[in-house]
Amino acid sequence: MDRTPSKDAVETALRDIDVDSLDVQQATDTTDEVSVAQLRELVDEAPVVRLANLILSQAVKDGASDIHLEPTREAVRVRNRVDGILQESMTMPRKVQAALVSRMKIMASMDISEKRAPQDGRISLTIDGKRWDFRVSTLPSAFGEKIVLRILDQSTISIGLHRLGILPKTMELFENVIQATYGIILVTGPTGSGKSTTLYSVLSKINSPEKNILTIEDPVEYELPGLTQVGVNPRAGLTFAAGLKCMLRQDPDVIMLGEIRDEETGTIAVEAALTGHLVLSTLHTNDAPGAVTSLLDMGVEPFLISSSVIGVLAQRLVRVICNKCKIPYQPPMDAVRRLGLSVDAAQNVKFYRGRGCDYCKGKGYKGRTGIYELMAMSDEIRDLCLSRASSHVIREAAIRNGMPTLKADAVEKVLLGVTTLEETLRVIYSG
Fold it and tell me: How far is 105 from 31, CA to CA, in rounded Å?
């Protein structure tokens, strides 16, 4: 089924709006009060409400992770990020912008009179009987405020570790790591690589009435029953470091720290791990061994790292071949070579790609899965941490100790017909 926005629905919503009445000038010192008064009248009118709801519900139907409302000189462009790729959804007249942006800001409990400073908010909606949360961020630009909404599916957290795409051998090792009663487990990767989903899946796996699990996040994305979840609030002095210190006085068994960003937070996290707590957190590094050097670069002492870190999982997300239009094909030989496969061996393997159909909107891909490398700490790696060894030296040791690399994991998923060589190269060499 083609899930592109219905042109009739968009055109009807726009036609019902008195576009001329929506041409509210950007607030100035002399028009601020008038503009806000006009906006408050406009944003509750049915056509504007319907247009805003149409944008949100269509993005959900498309399976988007983010919505971008982008003002230009002549129009307002709506783009949705589907399976990691931005694609244009609709374009609207420029005069719709003020009322539409204000409607989104009111839904997110933001201040519609503030147009010069960034704001953050949250929208909760029920669409087709299912609850969805939208994390909203505004950014002043040359042509007005741009809004980006991150779509949070509250059911995603219950997908379970077994559905993340972790291969059996890696899964067996990872499940052993997360059953530890103390130590620090790090999940690494670039923004948008699924780190939060992995952490929430781990928390769901280990959650039980016998454990006191606390999280501190920026912001709290998903609500998990049975956990105490805290959002950082720098204005109130509640930073990651301050929140973590307080949590250590709350008799925790497990602490999930949204991200390690600096020396203070890193040091407190590893010290917490050494005093009998299981700590889960994320870092922005390209691979698993890079997590060690990242902590060292922050200023965390080597002996703390070697004694506390028990495992590092690096990950990326790759698009999955559409099952409705999956066909065998022969990939370019240069792509085969870049992934380290021999040309002779590749000729005896059946590769697949998506031809493109209505179901995947001609993309050949539908959905995403993870590729992973898991570095479990060994005595050799701990010794290298203590000597401040470089990332590539630690990487070589990890491979000797049986670490499956991101590339090896990706190649296996290509050979299993899960994704394509081209998609794997795009993700591995761009991340």
Answer: 19
Distance (Å, whole) CA 130 – CA 12: 26
Closest CA relative to residue 114, chosen from 105, 104, 125, 124? 105
Report which secondary-structure segment, H or E, holds 412. Answer: helix 406-415
Minimal CA–CA distance to 10: which of 145, 100, 132?
A: 100
pLDDT per residue, tens digit, the chain (431 aa), is 344 445 566 666 566 655 555 554 443 333 344 356 666 666 666 688 888 998 999 999 989 999 999 999 999 999 999 999 999 988 988 888 888 999 999 999 999 888 899 999 999 998 888 889 999 999 999 999 999 999 988 766 656 788 899 999 999 999 999 999 999 999 999 988 999 999 999 999 999 999 999 999 988 888 888 999 999 998 899 999 999 999 999 999 999 999 999 999 999 999 999 999 999 999 999 999 999 999 999 999 999 999 999 999 999 999 999 999 999 988 888 878 877 777 776 777 889 999 999 999 899 999 999 999 999 999 999 999 999 999 999 999 999 999 989 999 999 999 999 999 999 999 987 65
Instruction: Supply 344's token pair.
Output: 């002779």
> Which of 173, 382, 403 is closest to 292 using CA atoms?
382
Q: Which two tokens stand for residue 157?
A: 């957290």
What gap in Å lies between CA 89 and CA 110, rounded to an integer?
A: 25
CB 82 within 8 A of CB 65: yes
Note if the pTM is more than 0.90.
Answer: no
Rg (CA), the chain: 24
Residue pair 255/278 in contact (Cβ under 8 Å)? The answer is yes
